[in-house]
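wait is this the right file?? whatever heres the structure
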């Protein structure tokens, strides 16, 4: 009888342990799933906030850049107008090559101005590559203008 009671007690204890253990695992799984869902929501929120912050920073940087660009383009337009005036004032028969070079400079300046106006400052555009391309174009235009104003007498 003791043996039967002892066996029954051990069996009951083992069955209870297994049942309690299984419940904890399923509860832990549910809690873990809830934690994963919450973490995903937090990650999505953080990504959205980061995107907003980047867009705001880029917007300010874009406006500053655009103001600076418009000023530089206006200065280039003035320099080109001065070259045209100087060409007309000399009274010499300026060769067609010089006039053509001035027209090319004017066209390059207009193209740069158009690129800046058409640039869409959004998250899909690559701001850094646009800025690099713009700076390269402006450097080339500046060098070409400098070469045009050098007096080769």
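ok assuming it is, sequence goes like this
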């Amino acid at each position: 009888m003791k043996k039967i009671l002892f066996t029954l007690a051990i069996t009951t204890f083992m069955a209870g342990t297994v049942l309690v253990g299984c419940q904890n695992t399923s509860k832990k799984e549910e809690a873990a799933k809830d934690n994963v869902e919450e973490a995903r929501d937090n990650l999505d929120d953080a990504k959205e906030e980061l995107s907003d912050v980047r867009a705001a920073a880029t917007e300010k940087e874009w406006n500053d850049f655009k103001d600076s660009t418009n000023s530089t383009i206006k200065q280039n337009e003035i320099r080109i107008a001065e070259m045209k005036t100087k060409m007309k004032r000399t009274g010499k028969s300026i060769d067609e090559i010089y006039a053509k070079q001035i027209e090319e400079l004017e066209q390059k300046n207009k193209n740069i101005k158009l690129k800046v106006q058409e640039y869409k400052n959004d998250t899909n555009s690559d701001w850094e590559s646009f800025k690099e391309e713009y700076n390269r174009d402006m450097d080339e235009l500046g060098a070409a203008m400098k070469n045009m104003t050098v007096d080769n007498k």
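Helices lie at 2-89, 96-118, 127-149. so i think its the right one actually
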